[in-house]
Amino acid sequence: MATSRPAAGAAGRALAYLESAKNLTGSACAVGGLALTLAGFAGTYWPVVVAGLYGAGALLAPPARPPAPEFPDPSSRLDGLRDDFTTLREYLDRVDLPPAAAERLDSLTELLAGLLAPGWVSQALAQDPEGIHVLARAVHRDLPESVDAFVRTRWWTRMAPGQQDPEEQLGRQLALLRREVEALVAGLREAEEIRQQTHTRYLEDRGT
Predict the structure, then answer these.
(1) Would you place residue 149 in the very low, low, confident or very high pLDDT band (cuts 50, 70, 90)?
(2) 55/59 Cα distance (integer angstroms)
(3) 129: which residues sit within 8 A by CB, 6+ positions away?
């Protein structure tokens, strides 16, 4: 069994070469050499001519190129992120927050929902890997951690008041997260503005 594997590998490589562009191109050139021989142009040196044309054809043929790997489309990451965002919102709906914090949270989640909604906005976002990372981090870690930490800290504060107000900390965290998402929105808007300006310059140059 051990000796059959190398033999099978050699046979596979030989078959692959027979089907390769190098062999096919070289064979076509060699056939051309035989045609020259039959026409009387090669004379007694026809084996050299045929072999030389085969070698030249094999060298001219493009090298074998393995197929490039195919990776998931960036938009597929957004599909999974939408599902996770739905799960996050279901969790947030069950949390009892003070009115001010709840208002801040609703404003932030509505902004995230607008970015993740299927359509041309999410298509633009799909071309921004860093933007997808920002949203994924907010959905998977930052928002649930901020809210859960508030719930836990608030319970301990009721048992033994601390030096800092948990609601104030949550408000600051939500404000920072919103600022981060707004920066992402500004970047996407700027990209669209640049696209529009580029098209304007193109039309102006074409007109002149």
Answers:
(1) very high
(2) 6
(3) 74
Quick one: CA dihedral 91, 95, 99, 101, positive or negative? negative
Instruction: Give every CB contact of residue 146 below 8 A, 6+ residues apart in sequence.
Output: 170, 173, 174, 177
For residue 13, give both structure tokens. Answer: 């490589």
What pLDDT digit, counting tens, does each position of 98-117 carry? 999 999 999 999 999 999 98
Average pLDDT over residues 138-163: 88
Going by C-alpha positions, the residue among 158, 134, 28 that lies closest to residue 77 is 134
Task: Sort residue 65 into left (φ over 0), alpha (ψ -120 to 50) or beta.
Answer: beta
- Distance CA(178)–CA(117), nearest Å, equals 18
Mean pLDDT of the chain: 80
The amino acid occupying position 125 is L
Under DSSP, the state recorded for 32 is: H
In this prediction the pTM is 0.64
What six digits make up the tokens of 50? 């045929």
User: Is the Cα dihedral 121, 127, 128, 133 positive or negative?
Assistant: positive
H helices then E strands: how many in the chain? 9, 0
Higher pLDDT, 66 or 49: 66
| The pair of three-digit structure tokens given for residue 39, joined into one six-digit string | 């026409």
